[in-house]
Amino acid sequence: MGSEPIACKVFYRSSTGLSSFGNAHIVHGKDKDELWLGRARVATADSLEAVVAAVLDELQHTLDVDFLKEERETILTLRQPQHLLPTKLENALARNTPIDEFIDAICVPVMLAYDSPVLSAGYHADYKPKLIQEVIRTYEELKPRLPAALRPVKVHIFLIPIECVKTLTDQFDQLLQANGHGLPGN
Q1: For 135-162, what is each residue's pLDDT tens digit?
Q2: Which of 37, 60, 99, 128 is deepest in the core (most CB within 10 A)?
């Protein structure tokens, strides 16, 4: 399965402490091509419940009909078919195609980096099994709460535990500032 990038939105930092970006890839399959609308979010959350809520909010936003129409328009604007392999997605990408056909063609990978209680507790000899348990527990809490609107859509969730999200985003911001590339919203 090969992947071709179409569109990538710029990393940004919002006043809520959440940072995110989106991208679109055509993933060529043997029988079917898929349009992957990737979402990434760095969540500053106080609890596992808040992490789960952040993922659900991101998924709800991603599947909003108006957002999907905007995504399709962005893809059509940025896509350069002469530089891409032929795809079976032409009908789904057409402006006049019903949004349901577009939804049938998408896959939504969501990467969520979050504050990990296991990592923030410092090094322990048994941190690895505890970390695996934490990620599994987070996913198991999230899965039954996925909205019904997601059932027709293939979703992949990547949970990335971080020792301290605030430290990571602050360091990233400082690095960008040092290189003269400030983040929008700051």
Answers
A1: 999 888 888 877 776 777 888 888 889 8
A2: 37
The Cα–Cα gap between 55 and 19 comes to: 13
Domain boundaries, given as residue ranges, for the chain: 2-178
Q: How far is 37 from 72, CA to CA, in rounded Å?
A: 10
Residue 114: closest CA among 185, 26, 46: 46
**Distance between CA atoms of residues 47 and 61, nearest Å:** 21
85 secondary structure, DSSP code: -
In contact, 113 and 42? CB cutoff 8 Å: yes
Pairing mode of beta strands 106-115, 34-43: parallel
**What gap in Å lies between CA 104 and CA 141, rounded to an integer?**
26
What's the burial of 21, exposed, middle or buried (CB within 10 Å: 0-12/13-18/19+)? middle
- Rounded to whole angstroms, the Cα distance separating 22 from 17 reads 17
Task: State the CB neighbour count (10 A cutoff) for residue 75.
Answer: 18
Nearest to 114 by CA among 15, 30, 42, 14: 42
Closest alpha carbon to 95 in 66, 79, 73? 73
Which residue is associated with the tokens 């350069």? 80
Task: With beta carbons less than 8 A apart as the criterion, state whether 149 and 100 touch.
Answer: no
- Closest by CA position to 137, among listed 30, 78, 52, 41: 52
